[in-house]
């Protein structure tokens, strides 16, 4: 049996600019240090109805406006 780290995902917004309250890369790295290197990462969508895997080729970098309020 393999260890799995599930990322429970849900829709929070309809534009990236609306997702300002999210983890940073540094915070994610710190969190992942608590798990073994061979732990699988799986996204759980729709309250566990569908699942997704994480592939490096599916990660992309972009930019969003950082308007100050």
Fill in the keyword field for this structure.
12% helix; alpha+beta; single chain; globular; 69 residues; three-stranded mixed beta sheet; 22% strand
Can you give me a brief rundown of this structure?
The chain has 69 residues and is an alpha+beta fold.
Describe the structure.
There is one protein chain. The protein has a three-stranded mixed sheet, with no helix packed on it. It has one helix at residues 25-32; strands at residues 4-8, 40-45, 50-53. 0% of the residues are buried. It has a domain at 4-16 and 23-57. 12% of the residues lie in helices and 22% in strands. The protein has one helix and three strands. The mean pLDDT is 90. Strand 1 (4-8), helix 1 and strand 2 (40-45) form a beta-alpha-beta unit. It is an alpha+beta fold. The chain starts with a strand and ends in a 16-residue tail after the last strand.
Q: Residue ranges: pLDDT <50 for 5 or more in a row?
A: none
* Helix-strand makeup class: alpha+beta
Q: What is the mean pLDDT?
A: 90
Output the helix-strand order.
Answer: EHEE
Helix content: 10-25%
Estimate the global geometry from the Cα principal axes: globular
Strand content: 15-25%
Beginning-to-end CA distance, first to last residue: 48 Å
How much is the radius of gyration in Å? 14 Å
Number of strands: 3
- With strands numbered from the N-terminus, the spatial order across the biggest sheet is 1-2-3
Query: Biggest sheet: strands, sense, closure?
Result: 3 strands, mixed
Number of helices in the DSSP assignment: 1
């Amino acid at each position: 049996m393999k260890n799995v780290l599930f990322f429970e995902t849900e829709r929070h917004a309809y534009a990236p600019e609306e997702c300002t309250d999210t983890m940073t890369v540094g915070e994610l790295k710190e969190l992942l240090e608590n798990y073994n290197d061979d732990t699988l990462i799986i996204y759980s969508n729709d309250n566990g109805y569908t699942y997704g895997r994480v592939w490096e080729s599916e990660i992309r970098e972009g930019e969003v406006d950082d308007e100050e309020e």
